[in-house]
């Protein structure tokens, strides 16, 4: 295929009017459980995020974004996608270069780029990025009419010693701040004070926790990617020595009534992991529309993979990926403007 040249393409700051174009090039992304259709408009309102579209003959052909985190020293790249009919022609490289050049100019204090990928990234990426962490991914597909039976089965598989564990509890905002404001005693829960929720990798520094300060009257948060403190939104639950984060249930393009839920587990105790999965699932499905179904992905330390796979045995698997990788590279600011014209 012929590689497209930069002059052929226009790169602009994404707007609400680009939504349909971005969704049109996203068909089939992440096997139908793409998060972007649900989060696009919320992302537009986030002052820490920049979003870009590439256009060819006035039609959207690519999308990319970055989010500034860690107090302004790190940027997370998210959402890259290219129109199916142009893949393999250098479009991704063009919009990525523009994104990084813009980032360097507008945020000169950013020294690190971070992103998440599934297993087997291309060697060219591994030559640039270092691997920070990896987690096992186990995904299941639950139909509405199977939920009651599924919960009965899962609860029957909980360890007999589960009564010895205090039940998970939801943490309110002040408790979340308190949890991460000082050194955690159980350092194996968050190695390097590193937190990943629904593929967004951040640290537990105060600036990131302040992302949750926009709390509404019902206790939920308006930012779907951020840590929340309410059972009606993304939830943090904890017991001694173990922590879990659950996203809100949200609709995905897989089909009418299809929803997605991500559960991120932190810690290495299998008994706690099982308890948290059931707890998060039961809480989340309260928001499941009548007749709806849910794809639930559980992210856990690799040592828990076999145990969680056995625990979820018999439930329909959703085989999108097996591993979540967190990659990072150092960058230096540039002094020259991006070569591609950008229009706000």
From TrEMBL:
<dbReference type="InterPro" id="IPR056483">
    <property type="entry name" value="Hisat_C"/>
</dbReference>
<protein>
    <recommendedName>
        <fullName>N-acetyltransferase domain-containing protein</fullName>
    </recommendedName>
</protein>
<dbReference type="Pfam" id="PF00583">
    <property type="entry name" value="Acetyltransf_1"/>
</dbReference>
<dbReference type="InterPro" id="IPR000182">
    <property type="entry name" value="GNAT_dom"/>
</dbReference>
<dbReference type="GO" id="GO:0016747">
    <property type="term" value="F:acyltransferase activity, transferring groups other than amino-acyl groups"/>
</dbReference>
<dbReference type="InterPro" id="IPR016181">
    <property type="entry name" value="Acyl_CoA_acyltransferase"/>
</dbReference>
<dbReference type="Pfam" id="PF24066">
    <property type="entry name" value="Hisat_C"/>
</dbReference>
<feature type="domain" description="N-acetyltransferase">
    <location>
        <begin position="9"/>
        <end position="172"/>
    </location>
</feature>
């Amino acid at each position: 295929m012929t590689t497209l040249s930069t002059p052929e393409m226009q790169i602009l700051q994404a707007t609400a009017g680009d939504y349909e174009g971005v969704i049109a090039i996203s068909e089939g992304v992440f096997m139908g459980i793409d998060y972007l259709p649900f989060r696009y408009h919320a992302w537009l309102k986030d002052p820490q995020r920049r979003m870009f579209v590439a256009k060819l003959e006035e039609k959207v052909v690519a999308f990319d974004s970055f989010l500034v985190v860690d107090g302004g020293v790190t940027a997370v790249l998210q959402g890259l996608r290219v129109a199916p009919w142009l893949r393999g022609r250098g479009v991704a490289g063009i919009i990525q270069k523009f994104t990084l050049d813009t980032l360097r100019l507008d945020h000169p204090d950013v020294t690190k780029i971070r992103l998440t990928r599934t297993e087997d990234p291309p060697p060219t990426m591994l030559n640039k990025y270092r691997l920070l962490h990896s987690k096992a991914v186990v995904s299941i597909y639950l139909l509405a009419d199977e939920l009651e039976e599924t919960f009965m089965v899962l609860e029957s598989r909980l360890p007999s010693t589960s009564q010895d564990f205090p039940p998970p509890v939801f943490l309110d905002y002040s408790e979340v701040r308190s949890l991460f404001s000082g050194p955690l005693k159980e350092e194996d829960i968050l190695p390097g004070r590193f937190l990943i929720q629904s593929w967004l990798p951040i640290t537990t520094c105060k600036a990131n926790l302040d992302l949750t300060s926009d709390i509404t009257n019902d206790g939920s948060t308006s930012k779907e990617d951020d840590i929340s403190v309410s059972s009606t939104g993304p939830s943090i639950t904890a017991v001694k020595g173990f922590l879990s984060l659950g996203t809100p249930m949200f609709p995905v393009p897989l089909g009418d009534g299809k929803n997605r839920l991500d559960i991120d587990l932190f810690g290495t105790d299998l008994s706690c992991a099982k308890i948290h999965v059931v707890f998060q699932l039961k809480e989340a499905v309260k928001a499941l529309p009548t007749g709806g179904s849910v794809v639930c992905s559980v992210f856990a330390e690799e040592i828990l993979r076999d145990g969680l796979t056995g625990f979820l045995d018999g439930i329909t698997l959703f085989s999108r990926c097996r591993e979540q990788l967190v990659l990072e590279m150092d960058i230096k600011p540039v002094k020259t403007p991006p070569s591609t014209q950008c229009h706000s």
